[in-house]
TrEMBL record:
Residues 1-238 form the ABC transporter domain. Its EC number is 7.6.2.9. It comes from Solicola gregarius. This is ABC-type quaternary amine transporter. One of its GO terms (biological process) is glycine betaine transport. The keyword Transferase does not apply. It is an enzyme of class 7 (translocase).
Length: 381
C-alpha cells in the first residue's frame, strides 16, 4: 500500500489534519502508527477506506488507486476494527460476523460456516457464542468478535484503530498475543493505530512515529527506533527505561523455560509434595486431564489429604504464551506471588514457566548492549 502526498483539510480549519503524507506499507506486515492525540492518526486511516475523502493525494493498494474506486466496494475489501469493537447491538454475534459476507451475497450456508470458522479462529466456542448479543459478552470477547468480523470476508488489508484501547491490561495482552498468532498464519497487510508505544514495539514490524499533521518523524523497525531514535520527539515517546522497553522486543518463546513441579487432579498429594521439594520450590501447579493449568497449591495445601481430588480453576491464574513479550511476563509476575509465570502453548497446554531470574538476566544483557538509561533504576521501582 502506498500513500502519496495524502492531505486532509477539514472545512474551517487553518492547518491540515493530515499534511502531505507519503509512506509505503509493505504487504503482509503490521505497520504501527503512533503519535499524540489529535495528530491525525484516525483521519489517515479513514482516508485509506474512504470513510473520509482526502483533499489531495493518492492511495494505492497494489496497483490500484483506491481514491477512484467505489467506496462501498472498497470498504468490503478492507477489514476495519475500532475501539470498543463497534458491534451492532441488536444483531447477534453470528449476524455481526456475517455482515460483510452477506453484503457480498454469499449463500446462507457458506456464511454460517464462515461465522463458525471465524469464532473458532478467535478462540470462542461457536455453539456457545454465535447466538448471543454483544451485551452478553465481556469487553475482550466483543473485541475478538470485532476482529472476527473484520476478517470474515478475508480482506487482504486490515485497518485497526486503537482496537485494544478499552480493555484491561491483561485482556489487552491476550488479544495482542492472539492477533500475532493469527498474523503468523494470515499474513495480512495491517495498519494499526495506537498511542501506546509498548504496544507499537510489540505488535509492529515497522513503526511510524507521527507528529501533528501526521508528519512522519521516524519510520523504522522497533529495534532501530529504540536504539537510534531520530529526534528528541521520538525519545520522548520511548521515555525512560529504554532497557525495560527492550524487554518488549524479547518474546517468551525466545527464552529458555524452566519446569515447575506439576501434578494432576486426582493424584496423591504426598507424591506432589515430594516433586516440589525435589526441585527446591514451594508450590505445585495442578493441571487438568488435558494438561491445562488450573491453580497453584502450596506445600501446606498439600498436607490436606485428598486435596487433589477436585481442583477448581483459579480465575486469577494469569498465563502467557510464546507470543507474549518478557514485558508482559514481568507484568503478570508482579501481580502474582510466585515469582514465576506459567506459559501455555497450543490448546492452552502447559509448557513451562518463566522465572524472575530469566527476566532479570535478559534485562542485564540488554543493559550492557544498549546505551539507554540504566535498567536497574526502573526495575527497582
Ligand atoms: N470531522 C472533523 N472535522 C473537523 N476537524 C476534525 C474532524 N475530525 C478530526 N478533526 C481534527 O483533525 C485533527 C486530527 O484528528 P484525528 O485524526 O482524529 O487524530 P488522532 O486520531 O491522531 O487523535 C484534530 O485536530 C481533530 O480535531
Ligand atoms: Mg484517533
Amino acid at each position: 500500500m502506498r500513500l502519496e502526498g495524502v492531505t486532509k483539510r477539514y472545512r474551517g480549519q487553518q492547518e491540515a489534519a493530515v499534511d502531505d503524507v507519503t509512506m509505503e506499507i509493505p504487504a503482509g506486515e503490521i505497520v504501527m502508527l503512533v503519535g499524540p492525540s489529535g495528530c491525525g492518526k484516525t483521519t489517515t486511516m479513514k482516508m485509506i477506506n474512504r470513510l473520509i475523502e482526502p483533499t489531495d493525494g493518492r492511495i494505492l493498494i497494489g496497483d490500484e488507486d483506491v481514491t477512484h474506486k467505489d467506496p462501498d466496494d472498497l470498504r468490503r475489501s478492507i477489514g476495519y476494527v475500532i475501539q470498543g469493537a463497534g458491534l451492532f447491538p441488536h444483531y447477534t454475534v453470528g449476524d455481526n460476523i456475517g455482515l460483510v459476507p452477506k453484503m457480498l451475497k454469499w449463500d446462507a450456508k457458506r456464511i454460517r460456516e464462515r461465522v463458525d470458522e471465524m469464532l473458532d479462529l478467535v478462540s470462542l466456542d461457536p455453539d456457545m457464542y454465535r447466538n448471543r448479543y454483544p451485551r452478553e459478552l465481556s469487553g475482550g470477547q466483543q473485541q475478538r468478535i470485532g476482529v472476527a468480523r473484520a476478517l470474515a470476508a478475508d480482506p487482504p488489508v486490515m485497518l485497526m484503530d486503537e482496537p485494544f484501547g478499552a480493555v484491561d491490561p491483561i485482556t489487552r495482552q491476550r488479544l495482542q498475543d492472539e492477533l500475532l498468532s493469527l498474523q503468523d498464519e494470515l499474513r495480512k497487510t495491517i495498519v494499526f493505530v495506537t498511542h501506546d508505544f509498548d504496544e507499537a514495539v510489540k505488535m509492529g514490524d515497522r513503526i511510524a512515529i507521527l507528529n501533528v499533521g501526521a508528519e512522519i518523524v521516524q519510520y523504522d523497525t522497533p529495534d532501530q527506533i529504540l536504539t537510534n531514535p531520530a529526534s528528541d520527539f521520538v525519545e520522548s515517546f520511548i521515555g525512560h527505561g529504554a532497557a525495560l522497553k527492550q524487554l518488549t522486543l524479547t518474546r517468551v518463546r525466545d527464552v529458555e523455560l524452566h519446569d515447575a513441579a506439576t501434578t494432576h487432579e486426582g493424584d496423591d498429594p504426598a507424591d506432589a509434595a515430594r516433586k516440589v521439594r525435589e526441585i527446591g520450590r514451594e508450590h505445585v501447579l495442578v493441571l487438568d486431564d488435558r494438561d491445562r493449568p488450573q491453580r497453584w497449591l502450596s506445600l501446606r495445601d498439600l498436607e490436606v489429604p485428598g486435596r487433589l481430588d477436585r481442583v477448581a480453576r483459579d480465575r486469577d491464574l494469569d498465563l502467557v504464551s510464546g507470543q507474549s513479550t518478557l514485558n508482559d511476563a514481568l507484568d503478570v509476575m508482579l501481580t502474582s506471588s510466585h515469582g514465576v509465570v506459567v506459559v501455555t502453548g497450543p490448546r492452552n497446554r502447559y509448557e513451562g514457566v518463566v522465572r524472575v531470574e530469566t527476566i532479570m538476566g535478559a534485562m542485564s544483557s540488554i543493559e550492557t548492549t544498549s546505551a539507554g538509561p540504566s535498567a536497574r533504576d526502573t526495575a527497582e521501582e
